[in-house]
Amino acid sequence: MQILRDGGTAIEAAVATAACLAVVYPHMTAIGGDGFWLISEPGTGPIAIDACGVSGASVNAALYEQHGLTSVPQRGPLAANTVAGTVSGWETALRISDRWQKQLPLSRVLRDAIDYAEGGFPVTRSQVELTAAKLPELSSRSGFADTFLAEGRVPAEGDIMRLKPLGRTLKQLADEGLDSFYRGKLSRAIATDLSEVGSPMTLDDLETYRPLLRSPLEVEVTGARLFNMPPPTQGLSSLMILALFDRLGVRIPNGFDHIHGIVEATKQAFLVRDREICDPSFMQTNASAFLCNGVLDDLASRIDPHTAAPWPAEPSSGDTVWIGVIDQEARAVSLIQSIFFEFGSGIVLPNTGINWQNRGCSFSISQKTRNPIRARVRPFHTLNPAMAYFHDGRSMVYGTMGGEGQPQTQAALFSRYAWLGAKLQESITAPRWLLGRTWGDVTTTLKLEDRFAPEVIAALRAAGHEVEIVPAFTSMMGHAGAIVRHPNGVLEGAADPRSDGAVAAW
User: Fold this and answer.
1) Torsion sign, CA atoms 469, 470, 472, 478
2) Which residues of the chain have pLDDT under 70?
3) What's the burial of 255, exposed, middle or buried (CB within 10 Å: 0-12/13-18/19+)?
4) Is the backbone of residue 436 left (phi > 0), alpha (psi -120 to 50) or beta?
5) How far apart are CA 182 and CA 207, in angstroms?
6) Which of 34, 354, 392, 429 could tie 85 with a disulfide, CB 3.0–4.6 Å?
């Protein structure tokens, strides 16, 4: 918010927030992760930045087989097998911002993140709980205990934590420029760190990496045009779920038809996702083909309005932050930034203080799968920031963390707000559901927060859904947020009571 008050753009505010979160919310995001951006300005369609890191040149099935592994490990140095794309996404976005107006100095954009890293920040309850829960698998990982434990113990909520090596790295980025992460003095230090901890990533992997400017996927629905990220993300799923549900004609919220309709649309969308989505260079069918009216009409016709289709399918998970910004010129950002699992690979680089992601554990060692491990390939991503242009002149950025739950939470939020008469905050606060596995959970049931009416729960069970009741406002339902800009310039925001998120406006 202070960046906007200082005259900065939505992009500069998003980068500043993303940098701060990489310090004060380290269990969910880091500069050692990936990022995906949707950016829009009045009079033009959105553009997308794919800052997804690729696997290293030496990363292949043989690397893991020689270590006696049959799958890519979820933690440790061999899980740190892809480039961290986040900082490249910041740089690409800031170049777009510079075309809009004169930029704030990079030192200003990163100032608060540097201050928190060097001077300290209060540890959140979320960080405490996840540190305790994951400590058995993380405590032995290189640099983790020295960075995230307090004299060998889990920190208490409100303890002051300092990440001084990370602060030095952020200050070096401010001084040398963001490209130094990949092609500069800092990149050489990062490469040395990666080698020291046993990661297969090299200086050449950093130097040859480039983010991609992409065209978003888009689909027309009743009253709006929706945008999301193309592969290797599951953005296609988010658009398909809403387009399929729209075809069912449901207009009453939170009842059987609403939940059953979106759940069954989710199954159809996830079947396409799990069969098709990978690095787009290896996809046989362009993702936009699945958003054609004929395909969507056919898939919608397969949804039985009374009976649940069989499930489960292959699950996925992930830990993430979503950031949305709209500035005074109506320029908008929807940004997702992630290290995949909580604390990523668990590896903290010793000199640069960077917590490296484990997104590459979504690769399969088997070369017969949809997402086989190969050199210089983008892994499948659950991340998918969303944006909507309404026919009445409103615009909207929205998103959530939550792995498999991201498309489902987006569908609940958008359907309630756009079609079912709910206010924006109500659309996020209202009870949610989740089909399959997500952040913090391993089962593949249809989970319902316990605030749904008993008769709705009974109807879903009678239709064949394997229902599991979970506590109200549980984090497994994701941490959603949204901002709507109305035609008269009024900005309306909503944050999730399930999260540490907040809305700031002036």
Assistant:
1) negative
2) 312-319, 437-443
3) middle
4) left
5) 5
6) 34
Residue 438: what pLDDT? 57
- Please tell me which residue in 9, 233, 320, 429 is annotated as part of the active site: 320
Residue 404 confidence (pLDDT): 81
Residue 436: per-residue pLDDT: 84
- CATH assignment, 225-304+388-495: 1.10.246.130
Q: Is the dihedral of CA 296, 302, 303, 308 positive or negative?
A: negative
| Closest C-alpha to 91, from 55, 131, 51, 60 | 51
pLDDT at 186: 98
Q: How far apart are CA 321 and CA 336, in angstroms?
A: 6
Residue 296 · residue 244 · CB < 8 Å: yes
User: Which DSSP category does 233 fall into?
Assistant: B
What is the rounded CA–CA span in Å between residue 442 and residue 438?
7
Contact 143, 342 (CB under 8 A): no
Asked if 320 is an active-site residue, the reply is yes
Instruction: For residues 328 and 233, give the distance between their C-alpha atoms in angstroms, rounded to a whole number.
Output: 30
Q: Using alpha carbons only, how large is the chain's radius of gyration in Å?
A: 22
| Joined tokens for residue 299 | 């898939």
**Residues 250/261, Cβ–Cβ less than 8 Å:** yes
Q: Is 227 helix (H, G, I), strand (E, B) or coil?
A: strand
For the stretch 182-219, pLDDT in tens is: 999 999 999 999 999 999 999 999 999 999 999 999 99
Which has the closest alpha carbon to 55: 402, 359, 264, 369? Answer: 359
Q: How many whole angstroms separate alpha carbon 120 and alpha carbon 30?
A: 16
Q: What is the DSSP letter of 288?
A: G
DSSP 8-state code for residue 459: H
What's the pLDDT score for residue 318? 53
Partners of 217 in the beta sheet?
228
What is the rounded CA–CA span in Å between residue 86 and residue 108?
19
Angstrom distance (rounded) from CA 268 to CA 386: 20
Q: Write down the pLDDT at residue 56.
A: 98
- Domain ranges in the chain are 2-213+320-362, 225-304+388-495
**Cβ-based neighbour number of residue 19 at 10 Å:** 27
| SS3 at position 240 | helix
